[in-house]
Write a structure and sequence with these properties.
The structure holds two protein chains of two kinds. Chain A is mainly alpha-helical. Chain A has three domains: 99 residues, no CATH class; 107 residues; 115 residues, no CATH class. Chain A has 15 helices and two strands. A two-stranded antiparallel ribbon of chain A has the order 1-2. The model of chain A has no long low-confidence stretch (mean pLDDT 91). Chain B is mainly α. In chain B, 66% of the residues lie in helices and 0% in strands. Chain B has ten helices and no strands. Classes of the chains: A mainly alpha, B mainly alpha.
């Protein structure tokens, strides 16, 4: 039934005997077809995935006793049927991960050397921006974006996290929504994500070249409220002043022996933290008037809030993690 | 001071409740309540910049400027930092506040204006506030000739004094921009 429903006229029988690059090309062509063929509730790729797996990460079977997924059930099939089922499962697996935006094995799916969704994977970027399977590329780019957001979040690099979370296409004057729900053409959609990630990556390469500490780079970007495309000398000087203050006055000051949620902390501790952060806020205002023009880091702005959050993290001991440089 | 750690909240609405008590929102509220010409007041343009034009803005438009469902949705997507969501939510709450208070202010102003017109119309309607109010409501959106036709009808019905139907009535309507043409024009139309 699955064969008839999803692969009628697709030459599945012949394709099930293919190997290597030919098999991979067939798989991708089928996934591209299923990603573009729309049903009432979404692309057919997600329907095919639902035949086998739940929508969770890790391909968990939809039905525990599905005969197509159990050894006992598969033993009742002929060799030809098994070969076709194997190919269907390969295609459905990729449909699952692409439609639901989970990272997958790039070596197996695309035949790449590195299984790495970071923008520094040149082979991946080259493929995404040139492949004929444009919808596979769109979904893969979206997975790259999602992966980058979680890495930035883990590294407390908020300007980059938020820039990618709310990525906007200046050319089309619209946000980059889900690949299934965008009017941006596939190639431009991919390029917008790849270009944004590459710009952030280049920014960090410049930072490393200038031998800037990661926290200093992040402070510099927080002052902008976004990830800028260059390092500004004046802003760097301002960031350095905050860096020195945080290193001297804040680092580790809010660490307590017994970890308790904020609400359960004694009033004296809350008062101490609050006063320390108020002093930092004053330091930011002092730095603002010393180095920056009117309009920068206004009280209540996103930039100000980023800096305050950074100060708080520093107080809790998240500081100078050079080894975890992004 | 509210926590910016997502794990400290069991739901988006709990986070939103905490935000409504947070110093950053309370100081924004103070700025909203300040007179427009004061140094701490905040403009609608500044507020829109806080919201930006990304996913949150898009959802906010879809949800017809209702803050809670937007926060719940962004919370569920879980890609945006809580810091940015906080700034954006303060922006959305600010617009909500402005909409409520500007509209409220407008209706108070309209009510005051309407009361002033009725005070001046009353003597023309033989002291009847009810007739004056009914007339005022009936001419809303009327063309000038329709207004003068209405006045002629009311004169015939003896609801408006013949003497007051010329200069006195024209002046009230003209003063409040309800009839913009000249007195001569009025007199040509009113019997």
């Amino acid at each position: 039934m699955i064969e008839k429903k999803y692969f009628r006229g697709a030459g599945l029988d012949k394709a099930s005997r293919l190997e290597g690059d030919e098999r991979r090309a067939y798989r991708l062509a089928q996934v591209e077809r299923l990603l573009t063929k729309k049903g009432a509730g979404g692309p057919w790729a997600i329907y095919l995935s639902d035949e086998f797996w739940k929508a969770d990460e890790g391909r968990k079977p939809m039905y525990e006793d599905d005969p197509l997924m159990t050894m006992a059930g598969q033993q009742t099939l002929t060799d030809e049927e098994i070969a076709r089922l194997r190919l269907i499962l390969e295609i459905a697996g990729l449909c699952h991960d692409l439609s639901l935006h989970f990272t997958f094995d790039l070596k197996e799916a695309f035949g790449f050397r590195k299984n790495d969704f970071w923008v520094s994977n040149k082979q991946l970027v080259e493929w995404l921006t040139t492949t004929e399977y444009e919808h596979v590329a769109m979904h893969t780019a979206y997975i790259m974006k999602k992966h980058a957001i979680s890495v930035y979040e883990l590294g407390h690099y908020l300007p980059a996290q938020d820039e990618m979370a709310e990525l906007y296409s200046e050319k089309y004057r619209q946000r980059l929504g889900y690949p299934d729900n965008t009017e941006i053409p596939p190639r431009d959609y991919v390029n917008t994500i790849v270009d944004s990630l590459a710009q952030i990556e280049r920014h960090w390469q410049r930072g490393r070249k200038l031998k800037l500490r990661p926290d200093l780079v992040i402070l510099h970007d927080e002052i902008y409220g976004v990830v800028p495309r260059q390092f500004d000398k004046v802003v760097l000087a301002a960031a350095q002043e905050l860096f020195d203050y945080m290193d001297r006055e804040l680092y580790g000051r809010f660490v307590t022996k017994d970890f308790k949620p904020w609400d359960e902390q004694p009033e004296s501790f809350k008062q101490f933290v609050s006063e320390a952060l108020d002093r930092f806020a004053d330091k930011v205002r002092e730095m603002r008037s010393k180095y920056l023009a009117k309009g920068w880091i206004a009280d209540g702005s996103l930039a100000f809030a980023y800096l305050m959050e950074h100060a708080q993290r520093c107080g809790h001991g998240w500081w100078r993690e050079e080894d975890d440089a992004l | 001071m509210m926590s910016n750690n997502r794990a400290d909240y069991s739901s988006a609405s709990e986070w939103l409740s905490a935000l409504r008590q947070d110093g950053l929102w309370l100081s924004q509220l103070q700025r909203l309540q300040a007179p427009a010409d004061s140094s701490i007041s905040v403009s609608r343009e500044e507020i829109m910049q806080q919201i930006g034009h990304g996913d949150t803005f898009h959802l906010w438009n879809i949800c017809q400027h209702k803050v809670e469902p937007v926060v719940e949705e962004v919370w569920e997507i879980a890609e945006l930092s809580l810091i940015k969501l906080k700034i954006q939510t303060i922006g959305m709450l600010s617009i909500e506040w402005l909409d409520q208070h500007e509209n409220g202010g407008l209706s108070v102003e309209t009510e005051e204006k309407s009361s002033a017109i009725i005070d001046r119309l009353k003597p023309i309607f033989y002291g009847s506030e009810q007739e004056a109010r009914a007339f005022l409501e009936s001419i809303q959106g009327m063309k000038p000739t329709q207004i003068t036709d209405k006045v002629n009808q009311l004169v015939d019905e003896k609801k408006v004094s013949d003497l007051s139907s010329h200069r006195d009535l024209w002046k009230v309507l003209h003063d409040f921009d309800l009839y913009k043409r000249t007195e001569a024009n009025w007199n040509m139309q009113v019997k």
